[in-house]
Amino acid sequence: MASTYVIDPETRHQSININVTNLTYAVDEVGSLPNWKTKLPFNKSKATENEFKSKVILNNVSFKVNSGQMLAIMGCSGSGKTSLLDVLACRNMGGEVRGDIELNGVKHTRGMIETYSAYVRQDDRLLQHLTVKETLMFVAQLKLPTRLSNREMQNKVDGVIAELGLSHVANTRVGGVDIRGISGGERRRVSIGVQLLLDPSILFLDEPTSGLDAFTANHMVQTLANLASNKRTVLLSIHQPRTDIFELFDLVLVLSAGKTVYFGEAKLMVDYFTTLGFPCPELTNPSDFYLDLATIDVTSVETEKTTSEILKNLVIAYELDKTTKSELAELEHSHQTQVSTLAGSMDNNSGYPGFFRQFQVLFRRHFRNIVIDYWFLIVQIIQSLTMSTILGSVFWNLSKDQLGMRDRFGLFFMTCVMYPYTVTLDVIGQSHRERHYLYFELQDKLYGHFAYNMAKVLAEIPFHVLFCTIYFTPAYFMANLEKDAGVFFTMYGVVILSVYASKSAASFAANLLPNYQLSSVTSNTLLAIFALSGGFFINLETLFSGLKWVSDISSIRWAFEAISVTGYQNLNFTCGEIDPKYCVRTGQEALEMYSFEDGKVWLSVTALSGIILTFQILAFVSLRFVPQKPYE
């Protein structure tokens, strides 16, 4: 009697079988034209269109994996292993997919895959300063239903840690390039644990043993075998596994140039190829031998022709293998399901974290990640203090004579320019480093764009204020500016807004552009334009009328004006030996030199706030609509 499988909408971990029939995946590729030329509007001629060719990545691939089994997808580089996983997991970027993919007899959809599967990538994307338990706990709070208490979530996390054999490093930092932490194999298991928190029925893994030593790789695959035995369907890509690892697989799919060379039980692979006249030599790893057999050797014309002929015969032999085809047909027939029950359970997302929960968790995670990154804090404090010390030393103890009057403008302008330049580079560098996990967490729908953006912005504000305080305060007193609380705090507030405006512009450039180099050049160019139109190098009244709008959107102009108006109010200057008719006696007269005599602090503060808001909106729009794919 045929087994009937249905998926209970109340739980994700179900027995799900995957049936793939005649799967073909093709993408458009460009011939000899450079990529940028194909995007030019005037280059869409018929000749250009003819340069596009369809490249077949997967060709008529069929297989069946039952719940409780582990399938290893093997093949050389470029064979289509990762592409197959991407298509199954609905992560293929473009291209045309033909054929049938069914889960328990129901045609698979993106919603089904997102609900019942998890995808572990080849490289680990984890926050290196958090511990193993903190990493999993933050993910649990973002993924698990809100009806669960904090204690229940901790129990869930502890269970995953125990299942993956990570109990001994639960309170150890994950680590990475910059800091020492857990081992590579343990880090890979943490990545798996992140995906296991929702107890998925299907687990996709791309090269899970890549970069691991032999012992760790074996331990990793044993862990996956244990997960599969717990009614999960595990599919992984792997290059050339050792013999002891190969023996852990239930099923093997060997691909070459997107075509199937073998699919069946791992223990029967040697017998299958032996019947075709290719017995595995003694003391030879079968996976090495048969992958070499299924690879075209291009070292010479003769070897390429010979190996191509062998591969062609292997593909034909597999396609004509009646036993394999009859097994697939029998498996397809013996696992029918209730379509309505499966399809009707896909939209059951009630009870899962919404915006406010995501924001709360992301705020705590981001704040925590900054606090425990003590080297970052130390560097930022030293940088702020160094900038302040330089300013204070250059403009030390300003007098109230004619020289001191002019030097104050220099101090005020440099205060608005010096620190923002360094902060801009820091923001862009940090943003592009965050892309290494942000892109994939967004792809996994761990949280929404708006929740992430708001949490990041608000979590960083206390540190922004701290660094601006360290930057502004020493220089203010070293320069012997007015001992007036109103003057001090007004200028202090303007500096905070000015630096934050530069940070907002840098965030926009970082989110909009693909790499650090383009972002930093664009941001610094924008900052240079703002500085040139800031009113210090050229009087705003004499600025070319066609460029006055640049000055109106310059954060440096408004900050310089506000600080100057505040710093020069109620000041009187001595003439010394200067001719009285050329002497500037009051702060108001000094402001007239830069056309700031009618300046209003409240207007400058309003303009700075508007500039910040504008760049923050642009930064969010870029984050939302420009893929934050890491390019470095």
Automatic annotation (TrEMBL):
Intracellular or extracellular location(s): Membrane
Transmembrane segments: 374-396, 408-429, 450-473, 485-501, 521-540, 601-626
Record-level GO cellular component terms: plasma membrane; receptor complex
Classification via InterPro entries: AAA+_ATPase, ABC2_TM, ABC_transporter-like_ATP-bd, ABC_transporter-like_CS, ABCG_dom, ABCG_transporters, P-loop_NTPase
Lineage: superkingdom: Eukaryota
GO-annotated molecular function: ABC-type transporter activity; ATP binding; ATP hydrolysis activity; cholesterol transfer activity
Coiled-coil stretches: none
Record has Electron transport as a keyword: no
Any single biological process term in GO: cholesterol homeostasis
Keyword Transmembrane helix set for record: yes
Pfam families membership: ABC2_membrane, ABC2_membrane_7, ABC_tran
Family: Belongs to the ABC transporter superfamily. ABCG family. Eye pigment precursor importer (TC 3.A.1.204) subfamily.
Protein name (record): ABC transporter domain-containing protein
